[in-house]
Amino acid sequence: MVVGEKGLGKSTLINTLFNRELYPLDEKPKASFPDPEQPVKVSIETVSADIEENNVKLGLTVIDCPGFGEDIDNTDSWKPIVDEINQRFDMYLDAEIKINRSTIVDNRVHACLYFIEPTGHSLKPLDIQFMKEVHEKVNLIPVIAKSDTLTENEIAEFKLRILDDIKNQGIHIFTPPDYINDDDETKEAAHEIISKAPFAIVGSTNQTQTQDGRVVRGRAYPWGVIEVDNEEHCDFIKLRQLVIRNFLEELKENTSNVLYENYRTQKLIKMGIKQDDTVFREFDPVLKQEEERQLHEAKLAAMETQMRSIFQASVAKEEKKLQATETDLFQKHKDMRDKLLKQIKLLEDKKAELEAARPMTHEKSTHQTSQPTKTRKGFLR
């Protein structure tokens, strides 16, 4: 869906974005002078096409809202657009309620490009009111139209003012999810795309030759050429990566899992049908993945507790063995020590006996040698 005031280049951007002439553009548009007393009604126009590039097929439906913001009094000019989004949600809900749900056609709005006039100041009340009405129903992507009318500094300051208004008003714009398993290069590319919002874009399908001889899509001015596919000139490439190339599935998933689920819940509550979340939880891949993750973590925690208890039991068993071995060694050491002490005592006793016996023998021998020799008397003298 593309929404914005007339003359901001919505049709040109769509043709540039998909490199197809989905909207025939007049080289010299005719000037129109509507009656100011006649109110301008907002209408809904739909263009569908099947695009195929490099064997990749894409069924595209572009919803335009001519008449938006063209009236003097634009009060409630957003209502036909919101009604269109709700009607497509209702059609999908009716198809889900049917018995045969195998042929459900998804006609929900998966992205809304809202064109902001390049005033360089801030958002207008109509811009804020519209975005507040649709930001919970559709993936909102704000773009600054015809950014080649502003300088680089003016664009940077204008983006900051727009982001401040969006933050202060509590408006949610589409932000690509940050996956944990992505590598650093992918995360950096995603963050770079997010940092460019709101996207300052220039649309053109005309082939223009630059001063160095290159043929590019762009707009020629007396002072130079604005290249559509040059990131230094505008944010068109980042917008194309967000909408078509990198995050096309994320846009559809956010519509199905978040925006549509919130709308369906509110719708059923208004109809008096109380929703049982346990019934639909199995069909929500995000919740199911979260449940599986929690079960896996609980299983790992139980295994860790079991392994810890087994480890502690093994350690206690080994400690008991070591204590028993240590006690046995101490007992053996004590027995050997007592035995050695007994042997030492026996040796010391023997030594003492020997030392006590030596002087007595020496004295006796000395006493015997000192006595005089007696002359034996008898008949044989």
Q: Which descriptors apply to this entry?
A:
Rossmann fold; 9 strands; 4-stranded parallel sheet; 9 helices; 2 domains; alpha/beta; about 50% helix; single chain; 3-stranded antiparallel sheet; about 375 residues
Structure commentary:
This protein has 381 residues and is of the alpha/beta class. It has 2 domains: 2-275, P-loop containing nucleotide triphosphate hydrolases (Rossmann fold), CATH 3.40.50.300; 285-335. It has 9 helices and 9 strands. It has a 4-stranded parallel beta sheet, with helices on both faces. Strands 7-8-9 form a 3-stranded antiparallel beta sheet, with no helix packed on it. The longest helix is centred in the C-terminal third of the chain and has 86 residues, at 285-370. The radius of gyration is 48 Å and the shape is elongated. The chain starts with a strand and ends in an 11-residue tail after the last helix. The mean pLDDT is 84.
Ordered list of secondary-structure elements with their pairings:
Elements: E1 2-3, H1 10-18, E2 45-53, E3 56-64, H2 79-97, E4 112-116, H3 125-134, E5 140-144, H4 152-168, H5 184-195, E6 199-200, E7 207-209, E8 215-221, E9 224-227, H6 236-245, H7 248-270, H8 277-280, H9 285-370
Parallel strand pairs: 1-4, 4-5, 5-6
Antiparallel strand pairs: 2-3, 7-8, 8-9
